[in-house]
Hints:
The protein is mostly helical. It has one domain (17-292). 64% of the residues lie in helices and 0% in strands. The chain has helices spanning 2-14, 16-34, 41-50, 59-63, 65-86, 92-104, 115-127, 136-142, 146-154, 160-185, 192-210, 226-247, 255-260, 276-279. Helix 5 (65-86) runs antiparallel to helix 6 and helix 10 crosses helix 11 (192-210). It is globular, with a radius of gyration of 20 Å.
Amino acid sequence: xxxxxxCMLATLKKNRxxxxxxxYILFLLITGMVWPSEITLLQGLGRIIRAPGVLVTDxxxxxxxxxTLVNAALVGLIGLAMVYFSGAAVSGPTVAAIFTMMGFALFxxxxxxxxxxxxxxxxxxxxxxxxxxxxxxxxxxxxxxxxLVSHICFSLQLAPVWGLLIGIVAGALLPELATHFLGxxxxxxxxxxxFAAGFLGTLIxxxxxxxxxxxxxxxxxxxxxxxxxxxxxxxYFISLIILGTIIEPGAWRKLPQIFRQSGLLxxxxxxxxxxxxxxxxxxxxxxxxxxxx
Length: 293
């Protein structure tokens, strides 16, 4: 019995970072489910999926906070599942990628439009015969092109299959583009994949315009929920501070170490804390990350 308890504690410690991330995602999910809404969650998610998603499409204005937070949580769950099942290390970049996906799922990403991009990156990893864990961060940050999928599927009067195919192709092209664009800014652009995706998005948009499929500017913006969302975010961020001090009581003393680092790609502040045993990669070494996010 004692040995069984020790094994359980060791398993919990090993998976602690993923469990913490899961807790924050479930917090958003539950908050969205209990938030009063004029429409059902399924109706709200349906509207989010069919929305063009291009800047600026504020899902709060479109369906309200409830379905929007649920959408963000579901997108975060997809990101966390990718990290966990691919065997990638839960590290600073992976945590940042998951939170980035969730943030943009408030105004552009959905549980539908991120999937073709991820599938494209996954296909490229298979083609190159490399483990997907080396591409998982790129796949998560690469979902910045997700609005391309929903816009082509639902706004251009084209067959939805075109949006899916273009999304898959865009995802497949991202790894090589991101790798080459890293040398352009020498690591000073922390969102390197966003840089590469911006170039690819510009190229695809120019082709759409050449074929008479011009995109009109969209401005769907909400200020109705400022007070309530401010309180929600304050609780969210303060809980991170409290959690950090609980996990490592001397965390404040390590802040100067972070401040002295340049932050150039690839930096990982998490592995310099007492969480190192939980966050570090397997003993075989940290896998090479395609594109350096």
